[in-house]
């Protein structure tokens, strides 16, 4: 089987590619720039890459570039997405217009290929807010029926992440509209904040960085953590190995299609801080990094597990592994 993975140098995508190669799959991976030696080298150095991995250059602002990578594949896993709008193309007015055009073009390429049977879209919990439709307060639970309102209030208004949440929400709705068209099945995996012990990257992954932001006293990343909390009520988290396994589970099970939340823990940011303080007394977390919202929203999604998937890692392992990984990139933990 040939699997196309877009955005191949990302934290999750690169680990997924590594796992797919280890399992004997042939992988077509896209990168925005094949002239970037760090990102190209990261993938070319993987075991089995010489015989099982082919790299393609493709930019989400030029979505037609993905067609050659998709050609001949049976599964496409679409992870590439712009994190902020640039003026690379005057064709798109904003990030969400570019992101929606990208998923539409990729879905159309899947149909035209004649070989693709499944398109898996890596979505985000920023698109699954349990805010009420009028954005005045939260629902009692968070599940697959939750969608982020286009105009939503937040105490932590970060323009780039407001645009990101909007673009991912609109793009996810667009890609799900292709489910069943042209004989392709569409899966949307709505992933929580990802953490874990491993990374192939030589820099701190952003998702992992925000998860340990209180322990590292990183105000910028902490504000992103709080942005997610204000959007989702609490912070859904998932282990890197579990979310990788979930993608492969959806890929290998032909009957799986539709929308699935992919996170097995749902914590307040204050609970994350408390966990690190309890297990690592040497870590000092200033009070400005501890804000207890006192919300009691419940996680109400078992759809992925009901389909047969099993999570291996609980929140304790996710947080402990994330801190271990963070030590590689931060001198903040000399005494931990």
From TrEMBL:
The record's section on Gene3D superfamilies has: NAD(P)-binding Rossmann-like Domain (3.40.50.720)
| Annotated protein name in UniProt | NAD-dependent epimerase/dehydratase domain-containing protein
- Judging by the UniProt lineage, the source's domain of life is Eukaryota
Q: A single Pfam family, by name?
A: Epimerase
MF GO annotations? oxidoreductase activity, acting on the CH-OH group of donors, NAD or NADP as acceptor
Has the keyword Glycoprotein been applied to this entry?
no
Query: Which species is listed as the source?
Result: Cuscuta epithymum
Query: What keywords are assigned to this protein?
Result: NADP, Oxidoreductase
Domain NAD-dependent epimerase/dehydratase positions: 3-255
Transmembrane portions of the chain:
none
């Amino acid at each position: 089987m040939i699997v196309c993975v877009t955005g191949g140098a990302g934290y999750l995508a690169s680990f997924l590619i590594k796992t797919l190669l280890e399992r004997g799959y042939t992988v077509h991976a896209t990168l925005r720039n094949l002239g970037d030696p760090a990102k190209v080298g990261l993938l070319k150095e993987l075991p089995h890459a010489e015989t099982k991995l082919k790299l393609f250059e493709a930019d989400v602002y030029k979505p037609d570039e993905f067609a050659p990578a998709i050609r001949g594949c049976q599964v496409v896993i679409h992870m590439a997405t712009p994190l902020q709008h640039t003026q690379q193309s005057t064709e798109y007015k904003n990030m969400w217009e570019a992101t929606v055009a990208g998923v539409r073009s990729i879905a159309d390429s899947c149909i035209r290929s004649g070989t693709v049977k499944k398109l898996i879209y890596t979505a985000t919990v920023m698109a699954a807010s349990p805010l009420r439709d009028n954005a005045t307060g939260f629902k009692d639970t968070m599940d697959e029926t939750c969608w982020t309102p286009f105009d939503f209030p937040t105490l932590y208004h970060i323009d780039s992440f407001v645009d990101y949440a909007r673009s991912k929400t609109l793009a996810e709705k667009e890609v799900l509209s292709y489910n069943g068209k042209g004989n392709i099945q569409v899966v949307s995996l709505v992933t929580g904040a990802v953490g874990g012990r491993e990374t192939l990257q030589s820099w701190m992954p952003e998702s992992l960085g925000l998860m340990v932001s209180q322990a590292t006293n990183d105000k910028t990343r902490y504000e992103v953590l709080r942005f997610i909390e204000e959007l989702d009520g609490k912070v859904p988290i998932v282990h890197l190995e579990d979310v990788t396994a979930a993608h492969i589970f959806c890929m290998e099970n032909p009957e799986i299609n539709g929308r699935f939340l992919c996170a097995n823990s749902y914590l307040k940011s204050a609970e994350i801080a408390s966990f690190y303080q309890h297990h690592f007394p040497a870590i000092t977390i200033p009070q400005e990094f501890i804000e207890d919202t006192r919300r009691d929203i419940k996680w109400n999604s078992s759809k992925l597990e009901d389909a047969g998937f099993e999570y291996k890692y609980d929140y304790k392992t996710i947080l402990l592994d994330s801190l271990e990984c963070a030590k590689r990139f931060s001198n903040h933990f000399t005494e931990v």
